[in-house]
Amino acid sequence: MIVEVKDLRFKYDDGTEALRGIDFSMDRGETIAFFGANGSGKTTFALHLNGLLRGEGKIQVAGLAVNDGNLQKIRQKVGLVLQDSDNQLFMPTVLEDVAFGPLAAGVEVREGERRAKDALERTGMLHKSGKAPYHLSAGEKKRVAIAGILAGDPELLILDEPTTFLDPPGQRSLQTLLSALPQAKILITHDIPFAASLTNQAVFFHQGRIAAKGNLREIVERFDWQALTTS
């Protein structure tokens, strides 16, 4: 197992009960789509997997309990790709941005640059290594953001609305990239065709609970299409 969660519960400071006893597991290398209306708990749950949020219950990722003592290791194993890549890219050049994570983790400069170049090559962005991130297209920014995560050699990728701001060619390019990556992947998305191009497994969140887990097409047919695609 790459992820195992037992009875996870979480309330926000305003009293909103966001997660109401979540049980969840996924295997190494597996890809699962997370569906559900806004506010159903998808992203709140995912943020618990790298310790950005802390609720009640048991969470184990890559064989490690998510607790204060393991947070640094957990965050190296779980890569979070944000919905808006502009929130993830902040260094003067693409190469510096992708190398930032390994260098911040204490990797020697030459090794950090090697990892960054390798990740950029894997994402087809090595030729943009000297460019400023703000000069890139939305699709290119997404690839660089993923490269920045891959440079840390994670075991699990969490992608929050990965097709946001991407035109159809950009979406196809991203699908090709993600399908070639061996890591386990969680796709938090309203884009059912995109999710179906990468996996046949899905989870449906409803009011802080997992209402269903199983075959993607069966879940789409079982639940109201509007509930799956609300944005």
Please outline the helices and strands.
Layout: E1 3-11, E2 17-26, E3 31-35, H1 42-48, E4 56-61, E5 64-65, H2 71-77, E6 78-81, H3 94-104, H4 109-122, H5 138-150, E7 156-160, H6 168-180, E8 184-188, H7 192-196, E9 201-206, E10 209-215, H8 216-222, H9 225-229
Helix pairs in contact: 3-4, 3-5, 4-5, 5-6
Spans where pLDDT lies below 50 across 5 or more residues: none
Structural class given helices, strands, pairing? Answer: alpha/beta
Work out the helix count: 9
Query: Approximately what portion of the residues adopt beta-strand conformation?
Result: 25-35%
Which range best describes the helical content: under 10%, 10-25%, 25-40%, 40-55%, 55-70% or over 70%? 25-40%
Name the average pLDDT: 92
Give the end-to-end Cα distance, rounded to a whole number of Å. Answer: 31 Å
State the CATH class. Alpha Beta
Number of domains: 1
Main sheet overview: 6 strands, mixed
Return the CATH architecture. 3-Layer(aba) Sandwich
- Give me the CATH fold name: Rossmann fold
N-to-C order of helices and strands: EEEHEEHEHHHEHEHEEHH
Radius of gyration: 17 Å
CATH superfamily: P-loop containing nucleotide triphosphate hydrolases
Counting DSSP E segments of at least 2 residues, the number of strands comes to: 10
User: Could you say which overall geometry the principal axes of the C-alpha atoms support?
Assistant: globular
Tell me about this structure.
The protein is of the alpha/beta class. It has a single domain, classed as P-loop containing nucleotide triphosphate hydrolases (Rossmann fold), CATH 3.40.50.300. The chain is built from nine helices and ten strands. It has helices at 42-48, 71-77, 94-104, 109-122, 138-150, 168-180, 192-196, 216-222, 225-229; strands at 3-11, 17-26, 31-35, 56-61, 64-65, 78-81, 156-160, 184-188, 201-206, 209-215. The strands form two sheets. A six-stranded mixed β-sheet has the order 6-7-8-3-9-10, sandwiched between helices. It has a four-stranded antiparallel β-sheet with strand order 2-1-4-5, covered by helices on one side. α6 links the parallel β7 (156-160) and β8 (184-188). It is globular, with a radius of gyration of 17 Å. The chain starts with a strand and ends with a helix. The model has no long low-confidence stretch (mean pLDDT 92).
